[in-house]
Amino acid sequence: MSSDPRFAGINFTPTPASVPPQGARLSRKPLVNVPVNYHPLNPLSFILRAALIYPNKVALVHPNVPSPVVYTFSVWAQRIQNLAYALIKAGIRPGDRVAVIAPNSPLIADAHQGVLAARAVTVPINTRLKHHEVAYILEHSGASLILVDHEYQHLAKDAKVPVVVSNDTGRSGDPYEEFLAQGRAFSQERGWPGLDTDPDENAAAMLCYTSGTTGRPKGVITTLRGSYLGAVANAFEGQINKDSTYLWILPMFHAAGWTYPWANTFAFSTQIGIVNDPQAQKLKRPVVAIIAGAAPTPHLIGELEKTGIKPVHVYGLTSLSFEDFITLIARNPQTYGPFTRCYDQEPWKDLSLEDRARFMARQGHAFATAEEVRVVAVEEGSDVLVDVPADGKTLGEIVTRGNIVMKEYFNDPEATKKAFRGGCFNTGDLAVMYPDGSISVMDRSKDIIISGGENASSLAIEQELASHPHVLEVSVIARNHVKWGERPMAFVILHPQHVSRWKGRHHEFAADLKAHAKGRLPGFACPEWVEVVPELPKTSTGKILKTELRKVVAKL
Amino acid sequence: MSSDPRFAGINFTPTPASVPPQGARLSRKPLVNVPVNYHPLNPLSFILRAALIYPNKVALVHPNVPSPVVYTFSVWAQRIQNLAYALIKAGIRPGDRVAVIAPNSPLIADAHQGVLAARAVTVPINTRLKHHEVAYILEHSGASLILVDHEYQHLAKDAKVPVVVSNDTGRSGDPYEEFLAQGRAFSQERGWPGLDTDPDENAAAMLCYTSGTTGRPKGVITTLRGSYLGAVANAFEGQINKDSTYLWILPMFHAAGWTYPWANTFAFSTQIGIVNDPQAQKLKRPVVAIIAGAAPTPHLIGELEKTGIKPVHVYGLTSLSFEDFITLIARNPQTYGPFTRCYDQEPWKDLSLEDRARFMARQGHAFATAEEVRVVAVEEGSDVLVDVPADGKTLGEIVTRGNIVMKEYFNDPEATKKAFRGGCFNTGDLAVMYPDGSISVMDRSKDIIISGGENASSLAIEQELASHPHVLEVSVIARNHVKWGERPMAFVILHPQHVSRWKGRHHEFAADLKAHAKGRLPGFACPEWVEVVPELPKTSTGKILKTELRKVVAKL
């Protein structure tokens, strides 16, 4: 079906159920009694448009697995329709929740579209969670059905609802393929026009759970409208178009893949669902990498640029850069992924790499379809949000509001009320605002170290310590101190090239790093203790678990 | 203020009133009692965002006039705010209409933003209309105030409402500048937060009048939501970004400039408001031209490509192409400009220019944020729309619906009802749909020639006649015929290079053209009469006035 020579070597034929009938109509049942000048925003419309306009263009590729597959937009749309009918046949009704437990693969890519087509709500579950954590989410979400990849079947063990397993083959005989075929048969070729359109653009789209680093994970309900507008903004800001190939590194279960599943169908781009190939070679074309995590150091930016990769950084759990290095804030999943972006300024191009990186590491301004972002004073017990001075110094909490803020925490009005205090979404992230209205994240509120009465940002300390050439990774937390109340303690992983140099002389390295810090940080922010460690405890998404480090420190 | 070296030669300082106060806040008064996860879509938000993020970037340039001006986003946003306050001071209330009569210039660029900021509705008036036509629009729209460029003051003569004249200087002493300064003084530095935000995204944004080729012009009301979504789609489809310079050729009064006034602020691009410079030289960078009008011929495409200009064509009153030649349908102003686009397909690149042009001249599929486009059977007196077969042959009427359809015809429920027959906007354009779901416009319904019981499209005939190398322009209409009922009659302007060749031998040219047609058109569609003319009657927007040709023919 596809004529893309890049994937011609993949030996694959879609199942008969995946092939659409001739002349199939690509729109759902029209709504009645809606104004002529209104259609509810729904990101599902993008795949239907793509299948209409570019039926034979490659939409989804899953290579480098035992059973690789290639789907065109036309075939993929049919599979999505089959999934919708299969879910309806299985008893799924509008508003019901359908859980999906899968790595990046066609199963979860289908779910992000097909569950919407059944007017149900997808609950994407982190595959790195433990069985009891998954069980909690299944229970809390009230999921009526589970779609699970064969490698993660153990996570759905003892589930009290139907489980559909995918062996990730895309071939007949695979139980997931049988499920889709049932959907196709059930539809009796009613096709897309047999499926209802959501009349309410503010209906729930997804139910994504927070990582729950503090307490139980909370379920974030997003809307169709928010998903549509988030996706359009990501396509525009990421300059994705029909000639783009989008390489998935971000797990699609993570904050619903940041609306990229729909940004890609909006832009008609080809999605590839695999990374970490040991045979990966340097690419011949420019590559934009969307990177997530802590603010990258100038050193890292330099190294990435050498490889020809243009990084995009997003603060929060993640990061992003396009033509150049770009920093975003992605508060996942409450803001559908990114809600700020660093917009590069003309004069920066003449700066040194180090100075440029300092500006580029700012989190910037509100995203294309977001409402304004503010930094406000956090007063306990008050509901009034007061903007801090835009002086680049005064710390406050980042708040935002508007179309790309979640609808609510599922079944948790108390948590929703707290999160929406003062009529804004309270991110829990601390930042400063510069005179130009851009912001820099300083820390999560709980990561501030109160040293001698001063607020020291562990993030700011980490950034300075990371500029020491022998530091690979560093994490700083508060440790109690008799005189100062708290003082910073740094946990450091040495750069592999320098491990042997400091072997048996970690106290000397500690002195060296403290001296390095002294020239760059105020006294109260200099680490009192430095510990060299072989690794740092991390969450399933690679975020350093400071809670674990705090447990270590509590015992010291 | 600006550091753009391209405009450094323009000797201009903004008026004191145009300079924003230090640290001015760039958001309007927050709405109360709206959900945290909702903000009403409003294209005014883009200029505020641009002024926040790129305050010193050049937003608007008006060169090559006696008093050239250059405004940065920061200064422009202040002028827009001043205009809003000046209007409010003058008694303008939410929903009131403000007329603007101006060529592309800062006055009308300001109005497209500043009138929205006062929550009023802009009525952009075609400067090429006659006094009595303008008087009709002023009366019908109930405009409470008129902003007029000094060159068009005569069109506002005898107006019964206040008139503000711009001498297009941007300098102190200009009455428009005095008006803005009054607004600044009136605001007493309440600034943007002193202006109300529209709570309803479906509120009226603009009131644009149809050209009224049949009967009185109708007033089209568009919405804030539609304008926002149309602008985002145009920015995305046009690949406009902050490095773009947008050269205005389309008059901004025309269908509110197709939402490009806001597409450009969304994308942070620089707008230049002037063309037709006799000293224009070939540009060194790739240029994309968005062209409007009848379908361009392969010859024209070839000529444009030779000059390095990539044309984009839009059917309707207008046309458009980006990376390559792209055809759109812009039904102005009822669909905010473009609502379809030809999406180029991979296999076309291997075709000959002529074959490629045939595909590229199709009007394609629905635009990025539009709902589906259909071609339906037109039955007199019925409200049921039946899709014609997608066979590339059966003629039907193009209908569409959704967010980028106008809200209504102002004060004309009867015309609105007729236009929205069957729950869709009835464009009055006839087209065929191909098996791939793309459409080609064949004609306006009234331009079909019924020849011997067959429907002949005058547009299709014109396209074939235009392929004769000596034809510069051609227009075909029906002329009564004793035997066949109607037969096509062609009015031709010869190409300047070939005028002398056929001088005194127009009947021979007619025979030559008829022979040319014979090989390309069915007998009933071949012109029975050919008349060579020095010029064709046209509307103010360059559209051939077939009504005038019909008057000529009626006398034959």
TrEMBL record, chains A, B:
Which residue intervals define the domain AMP-dependent synthetase/ligase in the entry? 51-279
What would you give as a GO molecular function for this chain, any one?
ligase activity
Stretches assigned to the AMP-binding enzyme C-terminal domain: 461-543
Keyword Zinc-finger carried by entry: no
Which Gene Ontology BP annotations are present?
fatty acid metabolic process
Q: Which of UniProt's keywords are assigned here?
A: Fatty acid metabolism, Ligase, Lipid metabolism
Q: Which InterPro entries match?
A: AMP-bd_C, AMP-bd_C_sf, AMP-binding_CS, AMP-dep_synth/lig_dom, ANL_N_sf
User: Per the database entry, which stretches of residues form a coiled coil?
Assistant: none
Give the family per the record: Belongs to the ATP-dependent AMP-binding enzyme family.
The molecule here is called Uncharacterized protein
